[in-house]
Amino acid sequence: MDALAELVESLPAGVVVTDGDRIEKYRWDRSQDPHAGTPLAVVRAEDAGQVQTAVRWAARHDLPVVPRGAGTGLSGGASAVDGGLVLTLERMTAIEVDPVCQVAVVEPGALNKDVKAAAAKHGLWYPPDPSSYEICSIGGNVATNAGGLCCVKYGVTTDYVLGLDVVLADGTLVTLGGTRIKDVAGLSLLKLFVGSEGTLGVVTRAIMRLVPAQVVGATLVAALPTMTAAAEAVVAIRRSLRPSMLELMDQPSIRAVEAHRPMGLDTSAGALLVAQSDAPGSACTAEVEAMSAACRAAGAGEVFVTTDADEGELFVQARRMVIPAVEVLGELMLEDVGVPVPRLPELVDAVARIAERHDLLIPVVAHAGDGNTHPLIVVPRGDDAAKLRALAAFEEIMHAAIALDGTITGEHGVGRTKKSALPAQLGEDVMALTRRVKDALDPQGILNPGAVL
Amino acid sequence: MDALAELVESLPAGVVVTDGDRIEKYRWDRSQDPHAGTPLAVVRAEDAGQVQTAVRWAARHDLPVVPRGAGTGLSGGASAVDGGLVLTLERMTAIEVDPVCQVAVVEPGALNKDVKAAAAKHGLWYPPDPSSYEICSIGGNVATNAGGLCCVKYGVTTDYVLGLDVVLADGTLVTLGGTRIKDVAGLSLLKLFVGSEGTLGVVTRAIMRLVPAQVVGATLVAALPTMTAAAEAVVAIRRSLRPSMLELMDQPSIRAVEAHRPMGLDTSAGALLVAQSDAPGSACTAEVEAMSAACRAAGAGEVFVTTDADEGELFVQARRMVIPAVEVLGELMLEDVGVPVPRLPELVDAVARIAERHDLLIPVVAHAGDGNTHPLIVVPRGDDAAKLRALAAFEEIMHAAIALDGTITGEHGVGRTKKSALPAQLGEDVMALTRRVKDALDPQGILNPGAVL
After folding, report:
1. Which of A300, B73, B181, B384 is deepest in the core (most CB within 10 A)?
2. Which residues cross the membrane (chains A, B) (predicted)?
3. What is the share, in percent, of chain B residues with pLDDT greater than 90?
4. Are the beta carbons of A102 and B341 separated by less than 8 Å?
5. Interchain proximity B338–A406, CB inside 8 Å
6. Residue to test with chain B: of A151, A158, A181, most B Cβ within 10 A
């Protein structure tokens, strides 16, 4: 019996997909990595046992396994590998909320928004909110240690992971952590798997911490003359306040959104800062007033404040709409570089210079409160020369971030599209250390080969 | 030249201590581990270069290195090993606060309280606050992923570690993370070193995140009839509120404190709950009122609330005084077990049964909001029989926690005194995985051998 037949036989009908047409959509994530391979088969696992079966099979035959959530990754972390398996967790979507323990026990294919909704039924909240929260899965969030808009106050995915079930490279299922909040027994293996992008194991269950729901009390929108001025406002705000959102759009982003769906944004502004406060009661007013003052001190003309939740949400939607709005202008290469917050203006300047040098449009949106920016490199469709210039710009932006004490990826992950720059950020010794950990956990190198390392 | 002479020669005068009397105090941490060995020498490092020199020397001669901070550890994580080095970081105490980046760049020997003080000068705050914060070092805090009283709202040490310099087992110095807030480039090696208790590397510098200072607005003290009732109040409070402190003392603890320093605590109460709110403005009043209501619903007689900061601090001091007060009654064996919050009453019951069975006094204090308890096993001085019973109780309490889905250590670490129970908590497969990571990073096994594993 050949290897593939053995796999098909060892799993229930319908779990292993080998049909070429059906396989096609599992080759790429949203980064549309041109180097994505063609897998031998896709395993659409229904439970942890099937994940173990698939991984054991791959180990036996020394074949690559690419784990996959909702396929919304932006760095090619889920690009298929020629002749290997794609192991999709999309069918494992169970969510169980324990309101007394304040945790959600979640299968990896469950969508972020569904975890939020399940928690909300109990007056609880799962904070991490990638911009793609309506379509991305918790498994993918764990794999990339995903961030989002609320991170500035509430932290990133790893801060909410209390427990993980992980299938290791040899098919062993381990349970790490649990429903207890504090636990320092043994090495922090739990945290090691968060952000490991499928290179160390396959998460089959996650226990996520929930917190009491917070109410956004006010939204502030400030028009600043320049991105530098806006970044100054951000630094000033962070110094004494803890806003629940602190986002930035540059002029090209504002204009793209306004062109895509007119809502009266100030298209003459150099930058738009969108901030929210969920401080309770009267403290909210005080926080927003202090933010307004910081914006004015940084040179803001108009500062608009609303306590109407729906109106506030419109501006947040404007911020979330930047990517689809810019996508209208061409294909996007989505950057994710970050720097220490005070160095934001330098990063923005560097991106502008790179854009000019390569004759490219590169709007910038930012989770500014965390120093995490998304330069959006626009490639006019069908313009192959621009595509090449964009690839060069993509690399240069990562190196500009590194030169500013920054990171090549704040929340999307390294995947395959950013790995060329990883050694420049981490250095030889940390790369060697990374390799040692990888080799210890996956000696055959079958888990997501080609990603990260 | 013999090995020791080679070490002495390779480091500046005064760094290597070999004198028997002076070595003595470096043999133990606060757990007074009776199995602590006698080191060949103590290296009192002044900088990372000297740490590298010492570790390289140890690697060359295949000798154990026990890293050590302030020696306030409670699990024997810094017990000396016969014939090895103790590598103390107590002389590396520099603290540099960058108020714009909102980080403290700290050498490992700096005390927690000094980091707090340095941050406070800039209106900033370093939250983690182990009860020993006045005498414990940041290096030790990182090594154990230390917790404290504010964790219930503000998290533990790992949540504040943005960067680490670590000397690896072969003497290589690696820099992980930095001053950027969000960074997912590469594996989460940074988090792996936090809580590794000196078994994977020696931290020589830490970059700790700071946040704007918060003001405690009100303190609540509630007398509950039983620990079970108090635990119910805790669960109810956590459901909708985020107090900045949520601590519990049982009756023996209350009585010990009152006997030690009378302050009018209700010694007839079954449990005393001490909570604080740092919600801003009027929200503080609302939060405290809701906590009061939850306590009353759980059967509280008296509920005392004060907005006077000094008065509030008195009650927090009463809580912090439990350990010294109970220490008057005998030698202490300090437990650190945790459970999912709703299982607190079961854990408290289990501890009471163990105390009764072994005819021991075991007062319990708890970071109740996190489900983390400190049963304080009292051994009357000079009573060898009681000492044996206490050792048995110590083990049984850990296994009781495991049986309740809990942990043998919430914040003190496994060290040497708790490692016998670690396999029962983690299971064979996770122990094997731990061993693989340890072997990959420290193939000779020279870093803190005998701790954790």
Report:
1. B73
2. none
3. 97
4. yes
5. no
6. A181
Given a contact cutoff of 8 angstroms between Cβ atoms, the answer to whether A336 and A411 are in contact is yes
> pLDDT digit string (tens) for B134-143?
999 999 999 9
Looking at the structure, give the CATH architecture of the domain made up of residues A329-403. 2-Layer Sandwich (3.30)
Query: A424-446 burial, b if ≥16 CB within 10 A, otherwise e?
Result: ebbeeebbebbebbbebbbeeeb
Nearest CA in chain B to A186: B452
Between chain A and chain B, the number of residue pairs with CB atoms below 8 A apart is: 276
Residues of chain A positioned with their CB less than 8 A from the CB of B241: 212
- Model confidence pLDDT, tens digit, residues B340-354: 999 999 999 999 999
CB A108 within 8 A of CB A139: yes
Taking an 8 Å cut-off on Cβ atoms, the answer to whether B407 and A370 are in contact is no
CATH class of B95-212: alpha beta
Residues of B in contact with A341 (CB under 8 A): 100-102, 181
> Could you report the per-residue pLDDT of B213-253, keeping only the tens digit for each?
999 999 999 999 999 999 999 999 999 999 999 999 999 99
For A182, the closest of B151, B192, B282 (CB atoms) is: B151
pLDDT tens string, chain B, 453 residues long: the values are 699 999 999 999 999 999 999 999 999 999 999 999 999 999 999 999 999 999 999 999 999 999 999 999 999 999 999 999 999 999 999 999 999 999 999 999 999 999 999 999 999 999 999 999 999 999 999 999 999 999 999 999 999 999 999 999 999 999 999 999 999 999 999 999 999 999 999 999 999 999 999 999 999 999 999 999 999 999 999 999 999 999 999 999 999 999 999 999 999 999 999 999 999 988 999 999 999 999 999 999 889 999 999 999 999 999 999 999 999 999 999 999 999 999 999 999 999 999 999 999 999 999 999 999 999 999 999 999 999 999 999 999 999 999 999 999 999 999 999 999 999 999 999 999 999 999 999 999 999 999 999
Most B CBs within 10 A among A180, A409, A419, hence the mutation to make, goes to A180
**pLDDT (0 to 100) of residue B1:** 64
Residue A144 sits at the vertex; the CA angle it makes with A143 and A145, to the nearest 5 degrees, is 100
Looking at 3.30.70.2190, 3.40.630.30, 3.40.50.300, 3.20.20.80, the CATH number of the domain B218-320 comes to 3.30.70.2190
Q: Could A241 and B212 be called an inter-chain contact, meaning their C-beta atoms sit closer than 8 Å? A: yes
Q: Looking at chain A, which residues constitute the CATH 3.30.70.2740 domain(s)? A: 329-403
> What count of other Cβ atoms lies within 10 Å of the Cβ of residue B363?
26
CA of B173: which chain A residue's CA is closest?
A429
Give yes or no for residue A281 having a pLDDT over 90: no
- The residue of chain A with its CA nearest to that of B193 is A188
